[in-house]
Amino acid sequence: MNVRNFIPRLFAILSLAVLLLGGMPAAERLTGIAAGAHAQQAPADAGKSDVWRAIRQGEQGYVSIPDKKAGVLIQSEGENWRAFRNGPLSTWGVWGMVGMLGLLALFFVVRGRIRIEHGKSGRLIERFNGLERFSHWLTAVSFIALGLTGLNILYGRYVLLPVIGPEAFSAISLAGKYVHNYISFAFMLGIVLILVLWIKDNIPSKLDLTWFAQGGGIFSKHKHPPAKKFNAGQKIIFWAVVLGGISVSLSGLALMFPFEFAFFGKTFAALNVFGFGLPENLTMMQEMQLSQLWHAVVALVLLVLIIAHIYIGTVGMEGAFDAMGSGMVDENWAKEHHSLWVEEVKEEERKARGAARGAPAPGDD
């Protein structure tokens, strides 16, 4: 070996060793890695574990930027949100919709279509005027659009994506996002309209107990409980749509305008008056997660109820669709399902005819 090449290499190796070991105490140089290094590593690992545990628990750190949420490196509640959304929520939603469809199919097989028992009379009576029908269809059509686009958000990646591919699914999902956001305002308007128009006819009464006791007459071909403009079943749908619609609209607004609304902390504070013991000091990120979950839960419940409503209003009951189609229903249908309402309408007509006969002729003083 060339001596002139070996000496510089040896000098470099010795210099590196001095740099590595020069700052260590003499005892550590004598004991080496087997004892000293291991003893020094344990406290360091313990410190790292404490820091990591704090990070995993969502410890708020310091940041100089305006968005203070960036100081939380790991938001642990996000895992709970994801686990519930992709687990129980998605599963229960499927079972709810499939279960309702199964029950309606079984009911149709056993009961068949609910026919007008005495047949059509040929005489028509106005059930809903133009404004009422507009309000109903505005709410119904917008809800269906919101339901379909919402189902795509929750289930599309599992149902549509494997069938149509990523490009088509991406285009559909993007369009669905805009539809969902903008159509929601039409739905909110519809909720306000039907609330104003029909709240007076949907106040619960003793008649509703009779209607429930007789199963609404849908299980019997010869027994129809008396009802006014809306029976107990329709009142349930009305209040579910109104209250559920308001709730899903508020949570939807919180999602459309993120980190602007804090509904759940205030709601929990009100519920805690009754001893619920719910957390009140929620971060805005937690508010967003709860808004998303609540939005999905309420929407799925409404979807299950509306499936039954659509069935009764179309193939399930003869003559029912005419009420929201033309607004005119057959008199026999009205008498069988809303007998007290028919009496009210007839009484108003008699009063109107009497007033017209008693009115002075044109030009008389």
UniProtKB/TrEMBL annotation:
Compartments where found: Cell membrane
Main location: membrane
Chain ranges passing through the membrane: 92-114, 134-158, 178-199, 236-257, 293-312
GO molecular function: electron transfer activity; formate dehydrogenase (NAD+) activity; formate dehydrogenase (quinone) activity; metal ion binding
Top-level lineage group: Bacteria
Reported cofactor(s): heme
InterPro entries reported for this sequence: Cyt_b561_bac/Ni-Hgenase, Di-haem_cyt_TM, FDH_cytochrome_b556_subunit, Formate_DH_gsu
GO biological process terms, semicolon-separated: anaerobic respiration; formate oxidation; respiratory electron transport chain
UniProt keyword Transit peptide, yes or no: no
Gene3D superfamilies found in the cross-reference section: Transmembrane di-heme cytochromes, Chain C (1.20.950.20)
Compositional bias of kind Low complexity: 355-365
Cytochrome b561 bacterial/Ni-hydrogenase domain span: 127-326
Pfam family membership, one: Ni_hydr_CYTB
UniProt-annotated stretches for the region Disordered: 346-365
GO terms for cellular component: formate dehydrogenase complex; plasma membrane
UniProt-listed SUPFAM superfamilies: Transmembrane di-heme cytochromes
Keyword vocabulary terms for this entry: Cell membrane, Electron transport, Heme, Iron, Membrane, Metal-binding, Transmembrane, Transmembrane helix, Transport
Membrane topology category: Multi-pass membrane protein
Family, per entry: Belongs to the formate dehydrogenase gamma subunit family.
Protein name per the record: Formate dehydrogenase subunit gamma
Gene source species: Oceanibaculum indicum
